[in-house]
Amino acid sequence: MTSKSQKLPSSHNEFRSDTFTVPTDSMKQAIFQATDGDDVYGEDKDTNDLQDKVAKLAGKEAGLFCVSGTLSNQIAIRTLLTQPPYSVLGDYRSHVFTCESAGLAILSQALITPVYPKNGKYITLEDIIPKVIPDDIHYAPTKVVSLENTIHGIVMPLDEIKRISEWCRTKGIKVHLDGARLFNASVATGTPLADYCQYFDSISLCLSKSLGAPIGSVLVGDSDFITKANHFRKQNGGGIRQAGFLTRMASIAIDENLPRLAEADAYAKDFAKFCVDHGMELDEPADTNFVFIDGNKTFIDPELLKLSTKKYNVKAGGYRFAFHFQNSPEAIENLKKALLEAFEASKKIKHDSNGTYSKYA
Ligand SMILES: *Cc1c(COP(=O)(O)O)cnc(C)c1O
């Protein structure tokens, strides 16, 4: 909890995304102690320590610090693939398909196979099997299955991951995890990170989302995989020289902020209950730090929300609300007032509830 004498972080009233979490004072102070080796030469101690720390948490041999989750996902899949033609299969909402600027088409020359979850939440082995493309000269065979956890704020259950992974391994299909928010899944379920990671050949873990690092993701996998991924990282302009001040901040973010992720889940659950109690319908229950209002059933006029969020000094828009440990209880109360006011006022105007809003911003 923030005491009255402490200054609130600038992100305290930010509900658009958990990317808005900011470095804490202890992270900023730590820059002065950071090492200054050249990481392209593999000589920066803070960077090597962070990579080892995250690899150890994930139960993998090696890690690679990347400037973004996009770089980390893209080079991971590129490394797992060898010679086109081939396909990458995943949930139709996957960030690697929808939000990485066509990276798979451009950087890996891969066809994608988007799969729809029958249960409306996450894809299962039964969704995947009929969509897997066989090794036939007519086709682009499936060589990688890419999962995401959490996806749309939903935790993919460990049992389902195990089933998918074991099946893929019998077929020679590699399995990648976009674990941008795997720390959130791990905290929400009490499942150690390594228990999830054992089922994947590569995992990308974001440090700049809920944890508050200024930039960065760590890609983990076995040593040969990481050596090759480092080749692609360099090729994509992602080699960083004196990376120590970034990686030292990220390391502190793991030590100090990881235990606080649960606070965000509690905020989201409380906010979800508030929405339901006031007659708003949700896409699904809040598993982790997101609340999604179902825009097809509950209309909130974007202009009215813009006005009410301004009035109550909170930053939010659309139908997705993201929570993080830097939110203040006061800002959350203000968000509730702003949303309710916009919702009530929206009932009075005509609208076309075709759900044309972005879930991915
Ligand atoms: C944010 C995010 C990424 C990576 O995003 P960057 O902005 O490139 O760091 C990857 N996958 C998911 C699911 C994300 O939310």
Number of strands: 9
Rg over C-alpha atoms, rounded to the nearest angstrom: 21 Å
Report the bound ligands by name, code or SMILES: pyridoxal-5'-phosphate
**What string gives the helices and strands in order?**
HHEHEHHEHEHEHHEEHHHEHEH
Helix content: 25-40%
Assign the structural class, choosing from mainly alpha, mainly beta, alpha/beta, alpha+beta, or little secondary structure: alpha/beta
User: What is the overall shape?
Assistant: globular
Mean pLDDT: 94
Q: In angstroms, what separates the terminal alpha carbons? A: 29 Å
Give the spatial strand order of the biggest sheet: 1-7-6-5-4-2-3
So how many helices?
A: 14
Unreliably modeled segments: 355-361
Sheet-strand content, in percent, reads: 5-15%
> How would you characterize the largest beta sheet?
7 strands, mixed
Report a brief summary of the structure.
Helices cover 40% and strands 12% of the residues. It is an alpha/beta fold. The longest helix is centred in the last third of the chain and has 18 residues, at 329-346.
Structural notes for this entry:
By secondary structure, the chain is an alpha/beta fold. It is built from 14 helices and 9 strands. It has helices at 25-30, 45-58, 69-80, 95-98, 103-107, 125-128, 158-170, 182-189, 193-197, 223-235, 244-257, 261-277, 302-311, 329-346; strands at residues 62-66, 87-91, 111-115, 142-148, 174-179, 202-206, 217-221, 290-292, 320-322. The strands form 2 sheets. It has a 7-stranded mixed sheet, with helices on both faces. α2 runs parallel beside α11 (244-257), α12 packs parallel to α14 (329-346) and α13 (302-311) packs antiparallel against α14. It is globular. The structure holds pyridoxal-5'-phosphate.
